[in-house]
Amino acid sequence: MTPTELAPRFFIAVAVILLFCKLVAWLLGKVGQPPVVSEMLAGVLLGPSLLGLLWPGAQAALFPAPLLPILYVVGQVGLVLFMFQAGYAFTSHRVTGLAGTAGAVSLAGVSAPLVLGILLVLGMAGFVPIRTDGVSLGVSAAFVGVALAITAFPMLARIITERGLAGTRFGLLALASGAVDDMVAWIMLAAVLAFASGAAGPALVTVGGAVLFGVMLWLGGRRVTGYVMGFPGEGARLLGTVAVLFLVAWYTDEIGLYAVFGAFAVGVVMPRSAQTDKVVDTLTPIAATVFLPLFFTYSGLRTEFALLGNLAVLGFAAACVTVAIVGKFGACWAAARVRGEPNTVALRVGALMNARGLMQLIALNVGLEAGIVNSSLFTVLVVVALITTLMTTPLLTWIDRREARTSAPTPSRVAVGTR
Q1: CB 14 within 8 Å of CB 46
Q2: Radius of gyration of the chain (CA)
């Protein structure tokens, strides 16, 4: 399709996505799910799993294959702007002892699902068609382990923001741990891809690039952003901020760390001032309302659940969901408790860290394009992403109610005498 032909398809697709996301958000809001979950589910429902099954002609007309890369790129704009805001909000609260606990939670949240995922694949690979021809069992097992170790950092940040949890201890712990989790997971993913291709270059670029990025951020990040915030005029500050954001997003994407971490890092080093507040308040609403839903919808349009009709695949999916929850929720909860956090804080951190969301789907798309993930494994891990994300809000609500019941004053007993 030519650009002239794609333009009207893009406009109608965006209109359908935004309106459908709003409808699904309204419906899921009745059961307490945040809008971020509706945006992920909307993409699945608009894709081959439902619309393509019931009305394939409409699905193909609304979302032709050449349109998907455009939706992805535009969605990236919203994601970068939103994660910039999340990083800026992250620095507005200080919590004592955060680094040690966040490090312990992150270590547990990566290592436990990684090991359990590898063992699961090694034990069940002979019974389930999850290996691609020409890909070793070790590569498939390592990929599943890394995929289960991923936390949906953008989704976690959005759930925390939408529920007003950004100033809580468990919200900050989850943000810090999730950021480290995903950075480590993407480095491990680069290593798996390098091993699968037989080339060490990509992994070395990711590790070396991450170290260089950290050094540059430490030495000059606040100086550069402070200089941008000193520009005369709101328009100049806005333009300078977007330029820095996109340059950093380009760099982190190029080294294999993904753009969200660059955007979050820029937000963290931004100087806190009225000028910065104004820039953030200008960028966030349009990004969250218009652009971001396109990102959360993109991967859903590429998923299909028909393969779950195979009982072996369905059983493997159930096992993967169980391992994912035990490895992430259980390990993060245990690590927080070992670090001395109250049980209510540890439970909430585990619930937030357990969500995989679209970050896992992005990793799956990378694996699919690299030829190390087949359609069955892709479908199974999409199920993991959906279930672990959908359960986050109900689990947090249950924890809130449990805490309220526990802290409620116990009615005094009235002695009843015998007559």
Answers
A1: no
A2: 22
Hey, what amino acid is at 208? G
| pLDDT score of 412 | 45
State in Å, rounded, how far the first CA of the chain is from the last one: 91
- The DSSP code sequence of 357-395 is HHHHHHHHHHHHHHT---HHHHHHHHHHHHHHHHTHHHH
The answer to whether 122 touches 142, Cβ cutoff 8 Å, is no
For 103-124, the DSSP string reads: HHHHHHHHHHHHHHHHHHHHHH
Domain extent listing, the chain: 3-400
| pLDDT (tens digit per residue) in 34-65 | 776 777 788 778 877 788 778 888 888 888 88
Going from the C-alpha of 222 to that of each of 80, 97, 246, the distances in angstroms are: 19, 23, 17
Alpha helices in 47-136 (DSSP H): 51-54, 56-62, 68-90, 98-124
Helices 222-229 and 274-286, packing angle to 10 deg: 90
Q: What phi and psi values does residue 340 have, to the nearest 5 degrees? A: 90, 10
How many residues appear in the chain? 419
Q: What is the spatial distance between Cα 32 and Cα 26, in angstroms, rounded to a whole number?
A: 10
pLDDT at 349: 92
pLDDT at residue 96 in the model: 56
Distances (CA, A) of 126 to 121, 131, 158, 375: 9, 9, 39, 17
Contact 21, 35 (CB under 8 A): yes
Alpha-carbon separation of residue 44 from 158, 198, 316, 347 (angstroms)? 19, 34, 21, 29
pLDDT of residue 110: 92
Could you give the CA distance from residue 144 to residue 97 in angstroms, rounded to a whole number?
A: 33
- The span from the CA of 111 to the CA of 117, in Å, is 10
pLDDT, tens digit, 9 for 90 and up, residues 150-186: 887 767 777 777 777 777 888 888 888 887 887 788 7
> What's residue 309's pLDDT?
73
Nearest to 181 by CA among 348, 386, 407, 356: 356
Q: Name the CATH topology of 3-400.
A: Na+/H+ antiporter like fold (1.20.1530)
**Which residue ranges of the chain lie beneath pLDDT 50?**
410, 412-419
- DSSP letter for 408, please: S
Whole-model pTM: value is 0.77
Q: Is 405 helix (H, G, I), strand (E, B) or coil?
A: helix
Beta strand ranges found along 219-288 (DSSP E): none
